[in-house]
C-alpha cells in the first residue's frame, strides 16, 4: 500500500496549527496525526511514513518519529515487519476493552454530573444536543461526529472529579476513534437528549441508567459496523 496522504492538509495549514500553541513539537505533531486518524483521514492499516508526514507538516523527521512513538504508546499505530508504522487495525477485543472502560467510567461521570454540574453546564450540554439534532436534520455527518465528541467530552468535566477526568483523558482519543465508527446517529442522539433531561432533573439513578444504555447501544452499533455482528 502506498503511503497515505491527504489533500486537505497542506504544510502551511499544519505549520499554522503547530505554531498556535507552546506544546513540545513532538506533541503537536502527535495531536495532528491522532486527529487525522480519529477523523478517518488515516484509515486502519494505512502506512504512515516519517518523510511524507514531515513534508506535509513542514517539520523535520525527528519530531515525527517521536510523535509516532507516542502514538504507539496510545495504541493508535503499530510497527509491522516489512511495512513499517501503520494505523492500528482494531480487533474486537480492543473495542470491547474500550467499552468496558466506558461502562466503568462514563456511568459514574453521569451519576456525579447529575449532582455536581452547574445549571449553565447543563444548558451548554443541551445546546450541544440541539446542534447535533440540527446537523442530523441537514445530513451533516462531519458535524454530527464533532458534536458527538463534544458531548462526550463535556460530561466528564461536569462530574467535577479531577481523578476521574485524569483517568479518562488518555483514553479519550481512542474512545472518539471508536465512537466515529457509528453510522446510526439518530439512536445515539436520542439517548443524548435523555441524558440531558436526567441531568436537568438532578436524577442520579436515571442519568446512570441512560449512560449505561448508551454505552451498550454504542457497543452494539460498533460491532455491527466494524465486525458484522448483529447481536
Automatic annotation (TrEMBL):
GO MF annotations, alphabetized: DNA binding; DNA-binding transcription factor activity
Keyword Transcription regulation attributed: yes
Keywords in alphabetical order: DNA-binding, Transcription, Transcription regulation
InterPro entries, A to Z: GntR_C (IPR011711), TF_FadR/GntR_C (IPR008920), Tscrpt_reg_HTH_GntR (IPR000524), WH-like_DNA-bd_sf (IPR036388), WH_DNA-bd_sf (IPR036390)
Superkingdom assignment: Bacteria
Composition-biased stretches (Polar residues): 1-20
Keyword Transcription set for record: yes
Domain named HTH gntR-type: residues: 23-90
Positions of region (Disordered): 1-21
Pfam families: FCD (PF07729), GntR (PF00392)
Protein name in the entry: Putative HTH-type transcriptional regulator YdfH
Protein species of origin: Microbacterium trichothecenolyticum (Aureobacterium trichothecenolyticum)
Organism lineage string: Bacteria, Bacillati, Actinomycetota, Actinomycetes, Micrococcales
Amino acid at each position: 500500500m502506498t503511503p497515505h496522504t491527504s489533500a486537505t492538509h497542506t504544510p502551511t495549514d499544519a505549520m499554522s496549527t503547530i505554531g498556535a500553541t507552546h506544546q513540545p513539537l513532538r506533541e503537536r505533531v502527535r495531536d495532528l496525526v491522532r486527529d487525522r486518524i480519529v477523523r478517518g483521514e488515516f484509515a486502519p492499516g494505512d502506512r504512515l511514513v516519517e518523510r511524507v508526514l514531515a513534508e506535509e507538516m513542514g517539520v523535520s523527521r525527528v519530531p515525527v518519529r517521536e510523535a509516532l512513538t507516542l502514538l504507539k504508546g496510545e495504541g493508535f499505530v503499530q510497527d509491522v515487519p516489512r511495512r513499517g508504522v501503520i494505523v492500528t487495525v482494531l480487533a474486537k477485543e480492543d473495542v470491547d476493552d474500550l467499552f468496558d472502560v466506558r461502562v466503568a467510567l462514563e456511568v459514574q461521570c453521569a451519576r456525579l454530573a447529575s449532582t455536581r454540574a452547574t445549571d449553565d453546564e447543563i444548558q451548554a450540554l443541551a445546546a450541544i444536543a440541539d446542534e447535533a439534532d440540527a446537523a442530523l436534520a441537514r445530513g451533516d455527518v462531519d458535524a454530527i461526529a464533532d458534536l458527538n465528541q463534544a458531548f462526550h467530552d463535556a460530561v466528564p468535566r461536569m462530574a467535577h472529579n479531577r481523578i476521574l477526568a485524569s483517568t479518562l483523558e488518555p483514553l479519550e482519543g481512542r474512545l472518539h476513534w471508536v465512537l466515529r465508527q457509528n453510522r446510526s446517529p439518530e439512536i445515539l442522539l436520542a439517548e443524548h437528549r435523555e441524558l440531558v433531561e436526567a441531568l436537568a432533573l438532578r436524577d442520579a439513578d436515571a442519568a446512570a441508567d441512560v449512560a449505561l444504555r448508551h454505552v451498550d447501544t454504542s457497543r452494539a452499533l460498533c460491532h455491527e459496523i466494524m465486525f458484522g455482528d448483529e447481536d
